[in-house]
TrEMBL record:
Gene3D superfamilies: alpha/beta hydrolase. This is Pimeloyl-ACP methyl ester carboxylesterase. The lineage of its organism: Bacteria, Bacillati, Actinomycetota, Actinomycetes, Pseudonocardiales. InterPro entries: AB_hydrolase_1 (IPR000073), AB_hydrolase_fold (IPR029058), AB_hydrolase_sf (IPR050266). Residues 25-261 form the AB hydrolase-1 domain. Pfam families: Abhydrolase_6.
Length: 282
């Protein structure tokens, strides 16, 4: 699956791709990630679903213009506009990390209807952010000016820390690449500096209004956002299920790909199953 298509929204270029047929499933990535993390899962599901991948403005293959806001509010507006562009009616939404807050705000504030929502190790309610994340928020301008080789070392260490099992060299290189160079380095610090926990507070205050099937999936070894936060999130959403994945950190896609893929398939099979009329046969 390649992000060969683009959607222009308020001067931003949003890269996206689509594959398969069947009920619509939209994947939302987080920070400092891109849709690359979801690609193998989307490809595996494309035999039974129409799957959509996209990179948020400021991430991956989408534009990284310094003058464009990349906070939760702007990303939720972009997601709502993109869903409208696709003409989707009640898609199934799957989100990780920052994509959790974006998808929740799109639904709760912009009132975009979903058929279901799966939230995997998401940034959705306070508190959020690793120690390094908090350091960058305090000194974004200083760190944006460090020499490129120091910046690359910082980003590699930061991203590597998100995995419980450790990352293969090729995977680490793929995740680091968008944040290197004259465009990527300042964009990395800019998206962290834009973080505003007030959006998460608004999300938490509105969780009780969610009226759709929700599953929360969490790696038990997530050191960026501990499983206790996932438990609190699930408890705040009426009827939500919680799936704990052992031996998985924040990068659950790479730490536990088989359990995550199984959970996704089981979830989507259940929420897309035709309703029964309750009639007994026999």
């Amino acid at each position: 699956m390649d992000l060969a298509k683009t959607f222009t929204w308020e001067g931003r270029r949003i890269a996206w791709g689509r594959a398969g047929s069947g009920p619509a499933v939209v994947f939302c990535h987080g920070t400092p990630w891109s849709s690359w993390l979801w690609r193998p899962f989307a490809e595996a599901l494309s035999g039974d679903f129409t799957v959509y991948l996209w990179d948020m403005p400021g991430y991956g293959r989408s534009s990284k213009d310094a003058g464009h806001a990349v906070d939760f509010g702007a990303q939720a507006q972009a997601f709502a506009a993109l869903l409208d562009h696709w003409g989707l009616d009640r898609p199934h939404v799957v989100a990780h990390d920052y994509g959790g807050a974006v998808s929740l705000r799109t639904h709760l504030v912009h009132e975009v209807p979903y058929a279901s929502l799966l939230l995997a190790d998401v940034v959705a309610i306070p508190p959020a952010g690793s120690p390094f994340f908090r350091l960058v928020r305090q000194h974004p301008d200083v760190l944006a000016q460090v020499p490129p080789y120091i910046h690359e070392a910082l980003v590699r260490a930061y991203i590597g820390n998100a995995s419980h099992r450790g990352l293969h060299a090729d995977d680490l290189a793929e995740l680091v690449a968008p944040w290197l160079g004259a465009e990527g380095q300042p964009a990395f610090y800019r998206q962290i500096a834009a973080f505003d926990e007030r959006y998460l507070e608004e999300n938490e205050a509105s969780l009780g209004r969610i009226d759709l099937p929700v599953t929360v999936v969490w790696g038990t070894e997530d050191t960026w956002i501990p499983v206790a936060t996932g438990e609190r999130l699930a408890a705040g959403i009426p009827g939500a299920d919680l799936v704990r994945v052992p031996q998985a950190g924040h990068l659950i896609h790479l730490d536990a790909p088989v359990p995550l893929a199984t959970t996704l398939r089981t979830w989507l099979t259940r929420v897309t199953a035709p309703p029964t009329n309750g009639t007994l046969v026999g």
